[in-house]
């Protein structure tokens, strides 16, 4: 009975007829938490600027007639935040997704309109701005919208805009900025975004002095630090209203690949069930997937991660079917790749989740939405293929979809007409669209550099979509597991804290030129007031204290005859390096492959991390294993260009791996953390076959032992190692080794030279004054620790120096040198003609574009060629098998590369740390033909046949292209280039048409 209570399993099997049978056992019903019974707590703190004399007062209660009334009782955190607003002071509201932060934003708008004040509402993305505009317009009448694409009622009292537009208005000294009383920053945790986070930081620093702020954020552990920064920068109090309260508690389950059900690992009270987790991991078969697919080296060989198999055989189908039968819908299934989203959705071909009335409604909504498209655009594969899925209540949402289809899917999901939505993580950001259940198809994601576990912050963001307030007693999160997971990693993932809000501040030429041009600002002041600088200043006392502690520890270490000990240690290091050099020669594939037969005894180097130089080589314990097999393995890894992709990077080249049976503990697939002498078969780790690189072989024995054919049972592996133990016992003076020259026929001058040097060093060690010392070992280890401590102190002092100077000080100097060398600014920081052009360009590389403009490239080119050339600035994905460029476009692209290389070289000469070739390669020609054809008047269905890309990705690039053209229009106008201005305007007219620029359904 106890086991059943711990393991909450929903068996999913198929009967003899192939129909799915779902077990009768129910998921544990949640116990309502204290939060839901009214005991909802929140933390309310206030940050004051230094030297601020806070008046002795209590924040007044909301006035008798509030600016906005709600048909429900407000939560404590909402009431506290509203009190701060009524007191006229800034507030940061940090709460979970769907906790109700929007209530505070709406109240701030209602209060501003009541008091005849102007208010600005900013959001991270255009699509979210459009959605918020629609919501605000339904609630308040005096609302305008300003994004890069659309401007509606720019003189309205409440303006909804993207943060980029706000920053642009600040730089240009817009009249709106003089009038604004309140600025609402939605999703302010976006500030940690690597690319765009700096925009938030600039906007906050440059906000008007008299403005007050409402910051809405997901839960961040360092909310107080952020509020302290705002208080310091704007010399005003900033309140923090923080709550961990989740309106709908969550239950977290694990579904092991090929398993028979779900295991409850975190209950609605937040308790992690270790035994249940262990059972889930044990249920995960390392050899068989749910459909019988082999899993090798942690990768499914067929069917793909997160849903191995096809159709009804796939794990994802079983989970979705179970969710529907148990009425746990709607469900959002998160994948980390656009392609995986679509593949998983296609596996649902046997599911029909909508009744006839719902199908008719879906059909009506869909065709009403796409009616504005041309007849040709209606025939696009994406349009025609999506409708049958939507009718069955299944949707797909990722950045590769046509924008109009994404919006249709959002509307259908909100209306309950989509029961199962396959989405990438971008769906978890922005508009509140909760579901009852959230499924994660993977526990790893590819972040553009490597595969890694999803962070607790990412898990919190996505799992926050589970549980609809007022509709569900609890939300359900299901984590599909297809590889072994340590309990500590699982705990930190599902029960960890949110990611801290750290600065992603970085300098740009556009920012620098705009700062130079503004009378009231300068770059140094912006850097000094940045959150990045604030965090560095805060860390300084702690860093200084650490240096002091380390220096005191170093001074306390006293070693007898330290100079002699250091001399001995140097010799040992030389000896180890020489032995490694010999090993790399002898155990190169050409010499050692003939001797890697199964059963041969092999002596292994400890992993690099565990090698201890302080233990003399001759007395180091031997680590022996048995060779089982060897094979070629992939070598170097080629970078993936799709940030949303979870497909493995492509491997090129190869090396060799030896499979060795030894006593060990393993991390990852093949990395050995520790190898233990097989003589001690104890709790340090069961015998296992591990893959080692050839470089970890220290020597090969002349002996071979019998190994069983099947080493899968632990008993077989233990018997094999006991045979090794017996062999070692029979050769107390050491097992005979293969001689590199006589047996392995190593013929190398480098090998002979290294052997002679080893003999010399060994002789020096034997004759050393400390060779016979009984305390040598401990003294060597102490000296190693002392040297490591010196290295740590050097690093810590470097950190102190970095933290005590102005951040980016050297980079600022370098960027100024670049601007002077290229003629954008004078030595006195006066912005020149070229600088005025670069000031207007923020959506692409301002230096290269300005150089092209002043080099006359745009004057000589046709409209189509200009559009094609500009496409190189906005496209980042890599497309395979591209056709060769036509001659005129190839010539233009060569000019672009030439200019980019010249600009890159100037930056390097001015001490900027960039790779010129990487910089030149960042201008990609992949969609030049597409942009040319589109500008020429081709239909969208025709341009989609030129390259194989997602429709949404192409539309996003074309919209960015139009943004760049609009900025070039303003830039040309600013320097009086009327002909160029007209040319750019004509290009905008040419490309701004049809489905690429179809109006948003939210407007």
Task: Please write out the topology.
Elements: H1 2-6, E1 12-14, E2 20-22, E3 43-47, H2 76-86, E4 90-94, H3 102-114, E5 118-123, H4 126-139, E6 143-146, E7 151-152, E8 158-162, H5 163-171, H6 175-179, E9 180-185, H7 197-205, E10 212-217, H8 223-234, E11 238-242, E12 250-256, E13 263-266, H9 274-283, E14 295-296, E15 299-300, H10 315-325, E16 331-334, H11 338-346, H12 356-370, H13 375-378, H14 381-391, E17 394-397, H15 403-414, E18 420-423, E19 437-440, E20 444-446, E21 451-453, H16 456-463, E22 475-481, H17 487-494, H18 509-517, H19 523-529, H20 531-556, H21 562-586, H22 589-592, E23 600-604, E24 624-638, E25 650-667, E26 671-676, E27 687-693, E28 697-704, H23 714-730, H24 749-767, H25 776-804, H26 809-821, H27 833-839, H28 846-854, H29 857-860, H30 863-870, H31 887-909, H32 916-921, H33 928-936, H34 940-943, H35 951-974, H36 978-991
Parallel strand pairs: 4-10, 4-11, 5-8, 5-9, 6-8, 9-10, 12-22, 16-18, 16-19, 17-18, 19-22
Antiparallel strand pairs: 1-2, 3-11, 6-7, 12-13, 14-15, 20-21, 23-24, 23-28, 24-25, 25-26, 25-27
Helix pairs in contact: 2-3, 5-7, 12-15, 18-27, 20-25, 21-24, 21-25, 27-28, 27-35, 28-31, 30-33, 30-36, 35-36
């Amino acid at each position: 009975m106890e086991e059943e209570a711990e393991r909450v399993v929903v068996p999913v099997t198929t009967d003899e007829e192939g129909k799915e049978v779902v077990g009768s056992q129910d998921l544990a019903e949640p116990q309502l938490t204290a939060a839901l019974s009214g005991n909802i707590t929140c933390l309310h703190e206030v940050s004051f600027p230094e030297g601020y004399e806070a008046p002795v007062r209590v924040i007044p209660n909301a006035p008798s007639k509030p600016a906005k009334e709600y048909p429900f009782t407000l939560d404590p955190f909402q009431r506290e935040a509203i009190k701060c607003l009524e007191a006229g002071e800034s507030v940061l509201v940090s709460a979970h997704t769907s906790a109700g932060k929007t209530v505070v934003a709406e109240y701030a708008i209602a209060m501003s309109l009541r008091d005849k004040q102007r208010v600005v509402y900013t959001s991270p993305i255009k699509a979210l701005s459009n959605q918020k505009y629609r919501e605000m317009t339904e609630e308040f009448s005096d609302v305008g919208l300003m994004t890069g694409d659309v401007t509606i009622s720019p003189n309205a009292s409440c303006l909804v805009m993207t943060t980029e537009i706000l920053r642009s208005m600040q730089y240009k000294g817009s009249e709106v900025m003089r009038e604004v009383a309140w600025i609402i920053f939605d999703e302010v945790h976006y500030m940690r975004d690597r690319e765009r986070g700096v925009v938030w930081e600039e906007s906050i620093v440059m906000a008007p002095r008299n403005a007050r702020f409402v910051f809405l954020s997901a839960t961040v552990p360092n909310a107080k630090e952020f509020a302290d920064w705002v208080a310091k920068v704007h010399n005003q109090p900033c309140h923090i209203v923080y709550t961990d309260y989740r309106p709908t508690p969550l239950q977290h389950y694990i579904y092991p690949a090929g398993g028979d059900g779900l295991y409850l690992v975190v209950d609605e009270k937040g308790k992690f069930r270790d035994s249940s987790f262990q059972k889930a991991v044990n249920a995960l078969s390392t050899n068989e997937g749910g459909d019988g697919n082999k899993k090798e080296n942690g990768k499914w060989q067929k069917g793909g991660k997160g849903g191995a198999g096809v159709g009804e055989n796939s794990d994802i189908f079983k989970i979705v079917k179970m969710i529907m039968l148990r009425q746990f819908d709607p469900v959002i299934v998160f994948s980390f790749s656009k392609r995986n989203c679509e593949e998983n959705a296609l596996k649902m071909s046997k599911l029909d989740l909508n009744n006839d009335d719902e199908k008719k409604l879906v059909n009506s909504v869909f065709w009403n939405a796409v009616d504005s498209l041309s007849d040709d655009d209606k025939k696009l594969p994406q349009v025609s293929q999506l409708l049958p899925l939507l009718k069955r209540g299944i949707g797909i949402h990722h950045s590769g979809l046509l924008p109009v289809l994404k919006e249709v899917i959002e509307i259908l999901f909100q209306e309950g007409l989509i029961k199962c939505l396959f989405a990438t993580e971008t769906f978890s950001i922005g508009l509140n669209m909760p579901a009852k259940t959230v499924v994660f198809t993977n526990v790893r994601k590819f972040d553009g550099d490597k595969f890694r576990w999803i962070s607790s912050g990412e898990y919190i963001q996505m799992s926050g979509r589970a549980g609809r307030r007022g509709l569900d007693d609890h939300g359900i999160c299901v984590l599909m597991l297809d590889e072994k997971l340590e309990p500590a990693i699982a705990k930190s993932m599902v029960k960890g804290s949110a990611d801290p809000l750290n600065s992603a501040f970085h300098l740009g030429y556009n920012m620098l030129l705009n700062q130079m041009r503004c009378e009231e600002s300068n770059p140094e002041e912006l850097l000094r007031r940045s959150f990045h600088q604030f965090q560095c200043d805060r860390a300084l006392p702690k860093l200084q204290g650490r240096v002091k502690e380390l220096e005191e520890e170093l001074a306390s270490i006293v070693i007898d005859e330290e100079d002699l000990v250091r001399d001995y240690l140097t010799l040992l290091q030389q000896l180890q390096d020489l032995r490694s050099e010999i090993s790399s020669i002898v155990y190169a594939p050409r010499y050692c492959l003939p001797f890697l037969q199964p059963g041969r005894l092999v002596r292994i180097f400890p992993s690099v991390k565990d090698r201890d130089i302080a233990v003399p080589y001759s007395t180091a314990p031997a680590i022996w294993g048995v060779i089982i097999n060897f094979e070629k393995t992939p070598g170097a890894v080629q970078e993936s260009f799709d940030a949303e992709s979870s497909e493995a990077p492509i491997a090129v080249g190869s090396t060799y791996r030896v499979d060795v049976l030894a006593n060990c503990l393993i991390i990852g697939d093949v990395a050995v953390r520790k190898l233990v002498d097989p003589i001690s078969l104890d709790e340090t780790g069961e015998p296992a076959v591990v893959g080692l690189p050839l470089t970890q072989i220290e020597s090969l024995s002349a002996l071979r032992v019998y190994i069983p054919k099947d080493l899968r049972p632990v008993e077989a592996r233990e018997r094999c190692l006991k045979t090794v133990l017996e062999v070692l016992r029979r050769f107390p003076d050491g097992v005979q080794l293969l001689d590199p020259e006589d047996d392995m026929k190593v013929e190398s001058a480098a090998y002979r030279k290294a052997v002679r040097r080893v003999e010399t060093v060994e002789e020096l060690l034997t004759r050393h004054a400390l060779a016979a010392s009984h305390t040598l070992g401990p003294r060597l280890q102490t000296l190693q620790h002392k040297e490591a401590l010196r290295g740590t102190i050097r690093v810590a002092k470097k950190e102190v120096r970095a933290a005590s100077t102005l951040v980016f000080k050297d980079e600022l100097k370098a960027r100024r040198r670049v601007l002077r060398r290229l003629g954008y600014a004078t030595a006195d920081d006066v912005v020149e003609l070229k600088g005025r052009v670069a000031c207007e360009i923020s959506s692409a590389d301002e230096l290269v574009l300005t150089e092209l403009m002043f080099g006359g490239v745009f004057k000589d080119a046709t409209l189509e060629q200009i559009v094609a050339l500009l496409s190189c600035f906005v496209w980042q994905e890599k497309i395979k098998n591209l056709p060769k460029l036509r001659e005129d476009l190839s010539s233009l692209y060569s000019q672009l590369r030439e200019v980019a290389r010249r600009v890159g070289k100037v930056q390097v000469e001015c001490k900027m740390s960039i790779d010129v070739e990487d910089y030149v390669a960042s201008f990609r020609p992949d969609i030049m033909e597409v942009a040319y054809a589109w500008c020429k008047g081709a239909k969208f269905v025709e341009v989609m046949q030129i390259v194989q890309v997602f429709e949404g990705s192409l539309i996003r690039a074309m919209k960015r292209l139009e943004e760049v053209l609009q900025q070039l229009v303003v830039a040309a106008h600013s320097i009086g280039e009327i002909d160029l201005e007209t040319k750019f305007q004509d290009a905008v007219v040419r490309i701004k048409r049809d489905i690429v620029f179809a109006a948003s359904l939210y407007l």
